[in-house]
Structure formats: structure tokens, C-alpha cells
Specification:
This protein has helices at residues 5-14, 36-55, 72-77, 79-82, 99-107, 116-125, 169-174, 176-183, 228-245, 293-302, 328-339, 378-389, 402-412, 422-427, 448-455, and strands at 18-20, 32-34, 60-63, 84-89, 96-98, 142-145, 149-151, 161-163, 189-198, 213-223, 253-257, 269-277, 280-291, 308-309, 316-317, 320-327, 340-344, 353-357, 368-372, 394-396, 416-420, 429-434, 440-444. The protein has three domains: 5-68 and 156-337, BirA Bifunctional Protein, domain 2; 84-145, Herpes Virus-1; 366-455, Rossmann fold, CATH 3.40.50.800. The two termini are 29 Å apart. The strands form seven sheets. Strands 3-9-10-16-13-12-11 form a seven-stranded mixed sheet. Strands 20-19-21-22-23 form a five-stranded mixed sheet, with helices on both faces. By secondary structure, the protein is of the alpha+beta class. The chain binds adenosine-5'-triphosphate.
Length: 458
């Protein structure tokens, strides 16, 4: 059976992973709220990233910097001058379009590096129509800045203008000297941060794939110039292994290296990790060698010293930066897409389709569900729930037949169901049923915590 966006969106909404934002007021386009299961999954995704990139990797340390930053930051980063999309309006039906998308969707031409004039000429030459009304009457292209603007304090003038950060990276760059000094880390080292970013996207959509408010998990890895391409390879491989370790299938992943024309002017190498979403290949993770561009820009704009003195060689240099930048929502959508399965486990006489989410146990919202076989066993089963809940997020369900309860847990990806029956009172054992194989085994209650801990290892 085919995985479609409709099915995935329906499951996410129906089971409390993701709801449309502000729904009782008719919604707010392209905003989403993460429900009880969604918030667990999201937190597990961020924890997994933090575990691999910070806790287990001695090269990196963490940071949580402010969303609102001194506006000079965005002058230095280039976001005030250059962070914009080329927009044009159809004069006939008044719809708005990104010129680059118009061309790419029309005949697949990659317009990376093209000027607005080149795009305009191409649209005229190929007589590319408005995708909405089919006419050929566009305005000129103008650049539209993607940063959300707001005001700080009581006066709304240019001096009080602030931007919501469009990436978390700049919070890391402006703290480079602080972190280096206080941790006494030697280059190479990295700074990792998870946090919200905001972009006033022109064409949001595909559920949570492109939204205006999202979370990023970014690493800025500082290394000595000349060693950067080696570290670029190191992080590329590290990132790929991270995805594979979360049971993302290799065949659904594509590492696309940017060509020379596509590369940003400051980047020596960039690879987009793409995933095969139900709507096609889409960027999941960008890994870029950003050279010394960001630190140099901040040195020039702030006048502060952000270079590094190598304590062994006494050499001074501005470190190069390797940046793997991953969206939490994009990994969420990837994980949900990858996990979704409809298994035909019926017979011709008795058709039966089992919807199951094969989440990696480390990511599953609940690690286990405790099911008393009969409501009469509620008391000891509750006690078992309390014991497990000290260690993991677990669910408890006593409503309906055991078979129905198993299916409910399959649909939300709970790796094991623990059934407490009348024998449990006597023998101190429970039946553990595996989500993926549906096999059952009897194990001692006292071994359960260790059993689950082993299962979610990652
Ligand atoms: P795109 O080409 O898809 O707009 P980008 O190249 O602008 O993305 P980056 O600026 O490299 O993206 O951002 C790094 C990562 O942040 C992306 O790989 C993606 O995972 C995530 N991301 C970027 N924009 C969005 C968005 N609007 N919604 C959700 N996630 C996003």
C-alpha cells in the first residue's frame, strides 16, 4: 500500500501528533500545533540529536542563545541585504509566485546563481504561463525579505525594529569567543544549538515540511583552514550515520552535492541531504563548508576580535566553519513517513489491514503500554505503570479487547505492550508483545525496566 501525505496527515491529526494551528478560529494557514504524542516525538528527536552531537561527541558543546538579537547581527550575516526571494505577481489573476520556482517547476531548469534579469528573460523566452490562470502577464521581479520584523518597547520606529532570527547559527557565531574562552576548548570544536527560527516563506506547504515557524538543530564546527574539507567529509558521514541509526532507509536518502554554480559565494562545498517524501525528494539537512565567512563578517561589523590563537604553534587565524543544519519538523516528517506502514495481515475470508508506525524505539512517543487483562487487575497494573513511568514515557490502557488495544498502540508506534493477567499476580511475570513481529514472550516484572532500556538503546 502507498504512503500518501493524506494518510500521514490524517494519522497525525487523528492520534494527537499534529493539529492544525488555531483551529477553533478557522485556523492560521501553515501553522501546526504538536499534540500529546507529537511533543513526545519531537522531544525524542531533539534528544537523539543532542545525544549524538553533544553528549557522545567530545568535540562539541551546547548553547541556547536568544531569538531576538542586536540588528547588527543581521547586517553582518547578510540577512538584511540578501535574505530574500524573487517574487512576481500575475497581473491577471493577482497570484504571487517565486520566479525561481516558476522556472524550475516549468521545465526543471536549475536557476541557482541566476540574476533576476536572467530569470525574467527566460520566463519571457519560454513563455512560461501563470500556473494559476495560464496567462503570461507578470509584473517585474522584486526581492522580498524573508525575515519577520517586530518592534521592541513602546515606540514603533526604526530604532526599535527587531527581527525574529531566521536561523540559530548567528547566535553561535556571536558567542564564539565567549565559548572558546570559558570552555577552553581548542580548535577544532563545535557548538550545537536547538531552537526556533522564523522565515516569512512565500510558498509554505506540504504539511510541516515548509513552515514559517520551525525549529533547527544546528552545529557550527570550527576548524583550522586547510583541514575544512576533511571535517566536511567527517560531518557528512556522521550525519548520514545518524539518520541510518534512526532506521531511515538508505534507499530513501540522497546526498546531493552542490555544483560550482549552485554554491553560495562563500561556500567551498555544500551537500543537501534529501529524503524521498510522499510528494517527492525534499531537502532534509544541509551540510556546508562556510569557510571563515561568518566570523569575518562579525569581526568587520562589530570590530571585536574573533580570531583564534593556537596555543601550540602561536599561530593566529580565523577558523573555518562546517555547518550541518537540520530542521526538527523535517526530521519529524521523515521519521513519520519512514515509520508509516499498512500491513495486510488478513486472509481472503477475513481481510485485515494493520496500520503500524515502526518508529525506532528511541523515538517512539511511548516506550511501552501497560494493559490489564481485566479491569479487576487495574490496581496491580497501575502499580506496574507507576514503576515504569519513573524511567520512561509509558501509556496505560484498560478499555476494550486486548486485540483492539494492541492495534491502538501499533498505530502510535509503541514498541511493546505489557499485559498484566491473572497469572501475573502469582508468578510475577507479564506478557510482552512486540509491535513489529507481534510475537509475545513472558518475562519477569523485575526485568522489565532493563528489557525496555535495552530496546531503546541507540
Ligand atoms: P529550502 O531550500 O528548503 O528553503 P534552505 O536551503 O533555505 O531550505 P537552510 O537555510 O539551509 O535551508 O536551512 C537549514 C535547514 O533548516 C533545512 O535543511 C531545513 O531542514 C530547515 N528549514 C529551512 N527552512 C525551513 C522551513 N521553512 N520550514 C521547515 N524547516 C526549514
Amino acid at each position: 500500500t502507498e504512503k500518501t501525505m493524506d494518510k500521514i496527515v490524517a494519522l497525525c491529526k487523528g492520534r494527537g501528533f499534529v493539529y492544525p494551528g488555531s483551529e477553533i478560529y478557522g485556523g492560521l494557514a501553515n501553522t501546526w500545533d504538536y499534540g500529546p504524542l507529537g511533543v513526545e516525538l519531537k522531544n525524542n528527536i531533539k534528544d537523539a540529536w543532542r545525544k549524538k552531537f553533544v553528549q557522545e561527541n567530545n568535540l562539541n558543546v551546547g548553547l541556547d542563545s536568544a531569538i531576538l538579537m542586536n540588528p547588527q547581527t543581521w547586517v553582518a550575516s547578510g540577512h538584511i541585504g540578501g535574505f530574500s526571494d524573487p517574487l512576481m505577481d500575475c497581473k491577471e489573476c493577482k497570484t504571487r509566485h517565486r520566479a525561481d520556482n516558476l522556472i524550475e517547476d516549468f521545465d526543471g531548469t536549475n536557476v541557482a546563481g541566476w540574476s533576476n534579469e536572467q530569470m525574467m528573460d527566460y520566463i519571457k523566452e519560454k513563455s512560461i504561463p501563470c500556473p494559476n490562470c495560464g496567462k503570461h502577464n507578470f509584473t517585474d521581479i522584486r526581492q522580498f525579505n524573508l525575515m519577520f520584523k517586530t518592534f521592541q518597547g513602546i515606540t514603533e520606529d526604526t530604532k526599535s525594529e527587531r527581527y525574529l532570527r531566521p536561523e540559530t547559527a548567528q547566535g553561535i557565531f556571536v558567542n564564539f569567543a565567549n565559548i572558546q574562552r570559558t570552555t577552553r576548548k581548542k580548535v577544532p570544536f563545535g557548538v550545537a544549538q536547538v531552537g526556533k527560527s522564523f522565515r516569512n516563506e512565500i510558498t509554505p506547504g506540504n504539511f510541516i515540511f515548509r513552515v514559517r515557524e520551525f525549529e533547527q538543530m544546528e552545529l557550527e564546527f570550527f576548524c583550522k583552514p586547510g583541514t575544512d574539507l576533511e571535517w566536511f567529509d567527517y560531518w557528512r558521514t556522521f550525519c548520514k550515520n545518524f539518520l541510518l541509526s534512526l532506521n531511515i532507509k538508505e534507499e530513501n536518502l540522497r546526498l546531493r552535492d552542490h555544483s560550482a554554480e549552485e554554491l553560495c559565494f562563500y561556500s567551498k562545498a555544500t551537500t543537501d541531504f534529501e529524503y524521498l517524501f510522499p510528494f517527492g525528494w525534499g531537502e532534509l539537512w544541509g551540510v556546508a563548508d562556510r569557510t571563515d565567512y561568518d566570523l569575518t563578517q562579525h569581526i568587520n561589523t562589530s570590530g571585536k576580535r574573533l580570531d583564534y590563537l593556537d596555543p601550540e604553534t602561536n599561530e593566529k587565524y580565523i577558523p573555518y566553519v562546517i555547518e550541518p543544519s537540520l530542521g526538527v519538523e523535517r526530521l519529524f516528517l521523515t521519521v513519520v513517513t519512514e515509520a508509516y506502514d499498512e500491513e495486510d495481515i488478513g486472509t481472503p475470508e477475513k481481510p485485515d489491514v494493520r496500520t503500524v508506525m515502526h518508529f525506532h524505539p528511541a523515538l517512539a512517543p511511548f516506550k511501552a503500554c501497560v494493559l490489564p487483562l481485566s479491569k479487576k487487575l487495574a490496581e496491580p497494573a497501575q502499580k506496574l505503570f507507576d514503576t515504569l513511568a519513573k524511567h520512561f514515557s509509558v501509556d496505560y490502557d484498560e478499555a476494550g479487547s486486548i486485540g483492539k488495544r494492541y492495534r491502538r498502540q501499533d498505530e502510535i508506534g509503541t514498541p511493546i505492550c505489557v499485559t498484566y493477567d491473572f497469572d501475573s499476580v502469582e508468578d510475577g511475570c507479564v506478557t510482552v508483545r512486540d509491535r513489529d513481529t507481534m510475537e509475545q514472550e513472558r518475562i519477569k516484572i523485575e526485568d522489565l525496566v532493563g528489557y525496555i532500556a535495552k530496546k531503546i538503546e541507540f
